Amino acid sequence: MRPQFYFFVITLLGWASWAGAQTYDIDELRRKPDSNSLKVEIPELEIQPVKLPMSALDLRVIYWRHWSSFGINANQSSFSDNWTGGGVNSISVGLLLNHKSDFTRDNTNFVTELMLQYGKQKNKDQQPRKNNDRMFWDNKLSLKVSNNWSLFMSLTFESQFDMGLKYGNDNEITDTVSNFMAPGYLTESLGIEYKPDNTFSLRIGTGTARQTFILDEQLIPRNGETRFGVESDRRFRNDLAFQITANLDRNIARNLNLKSRYNLFANYEELGDPSHRLDATLTASVTRLINVTLSGILLYDSRLHENIQTSQTLALGLLYKLPR
């Protein structure tokens, strides 16, 4: 056969093969990597309540705090028989018991404070005489309404332990002027309190009532007289009044403490003649047990006396405090 025929056949077969062949993009032929090559299985969550065991420490919150102090003060002086400078042998002893408890929880505060003081002095050739005698018990419940202000209600009791006697020039007892619950005072007060810190407080009692008791038969006023504001042949008097009470208990130096209480009591029927009482005690600690105390009282109450009364004591003593 002719060479031209073979060439034609081969050309025809090549064209047919090319026409039936498929064309591909080389990029499509590349294998793409798996987008999630690191498979993480997410487990189904099952939430169940778990009961925690109780702590073995059994911790509790204590809302009460307590402070107590016991003290004894003594003064003594003596002179020989041939002492020419003058003087008289004397000895005086005083006892005191103070206790304070404080309950604070959230905005509620309750404070109770008890102060008991009694002392006697004995001079040569004279009968023993009192130089200190007081019972004081104050209770206050308050509800805080802001950082420094609270609403409060209080109950206060005041009296003395022993008889108060009057002596004549010859050292004989001439009269009894007071006794236990003669007078005795019970005061209820309602109002607002300002307390910027733990060392100072100011109470303003707009609704205050005070009852005065005379339970000693010898001291009941007779024949139209009045005693402690109680009218003749009566044992009791009730007053509605306005009251201001300020308390300060502050360490003014490392071993020096000042404690004071001021009370103003004004009967609404006698607002122009209120009673005032200021008690102040300055205590210097020499050691943990030994202290020097300077105390004073300033009192004005026209029902007791028309003039201001004062009392002052300087003593060296032992004072034991809890907690120490």
Find the structural class using helix and strand composition: mainly beta
**Unreliable sequence segments:** none
Through-space gap between termini:
136 Å
Q: What is the CATH fold-level name?
A: Porin
Q: What is the number of domains?
A: 1
Give me the oligomer status.
single chain
Outline the structure in words.
Helix content is 6%, strand content 55%. It is mainly β. The chain has one domain (64-75, 89-322): Porin (Beta Barrel), CATH 2.40.160. The model has no long low-confidence stretch (mean pLDDT 88).
Features:
324 residues, 14 strands, mainly beta, 1 helix, Porin, 12-stranded antiparallel β-barrel
Q: What's the structural blueprint in terms of helices and strands?
A:
Layout: H1 3-20, E1 64-77, E2 90-105, E3 108-123, E4 129-144, E5 149-159, E6 164-167, E7 173-178, E8 184-197, E9 200-213, E10 236-253, E11 256-267, E12 275-285, E13 290-300, E14 309-322
Antiparallel strand pairs: 1-2, 1-14, 2-3, 3-4, 4-5, 5-8, 6-7, 8-9, 9-10, 10-11, 11-12, 12-13, 13-14
